[in-house]
Amino acid sequence: MAVTDEAIEKIKAMIVAGDLRPGDRLPREADLAERLGLSRNSLREAVKALSLIRVLDVRQGDGTYVTSLAPQLLLDALNFIVDFHRDDTVLEFFEVRRILEPAATALAAQRMSDDDVQALRKVLADLSDDASIDELVANDLDFHHRIAAGAGNALLCSLIDSLSGPTTRARIWRGLTQAGAVEKTREQHAAILEAIAGRQPELARSWATVHVAGVEDWLRVALQGPVG
Q1: pLDDT tens, 177-194?
Q2: Which residues form the HTH gntR-type domain (predicted)?
């Protein structure tokens, strides 16, 4: 194991063991290096690496702190990686969405507040019949985000949000090229909403699966032929 990796693992172990908690300030560099049996240089490199993935927060003139370790914060690194996806990997993002979103939708049917259900209903109502493709996609992203948030699991919501970006181009492409895509999206959104409002988690799960899988299946076929 590289020296820096060893240093990272030792700091991680302190956090996992509870020796360092969210918001705690790390001991002085010299003291921590001695405690962990590390060189100050390897400790310094480990701190840099952990600050990049938002585990540590280096405050100039103040010290180094453990962050809140909130899922949304830690997933910033995943969002950065996701931004480098290639078009030929977009199907993999849809496959993961097909696994996660139906589960989130089922949870939303159980946990979403009545006020949030009404807000979700308003999202659909606000989409005009002559909406542009850009407006449709923005509405679609908002709809899916609200359901993910309504699942009541911050980590699950962050994961789903991070997967939305790479699939946006495919949604636009489908809206522009597939006949009836806009109408089908609206119908499926309405069915998902009614299942959530009716507190029917398995029906909500089923409609979410149909919805995401439909786009995935269309894209799989589209990628096999010429792109127009």
Answers
A1: 777 777 888 899 999 999
A2: 1-69
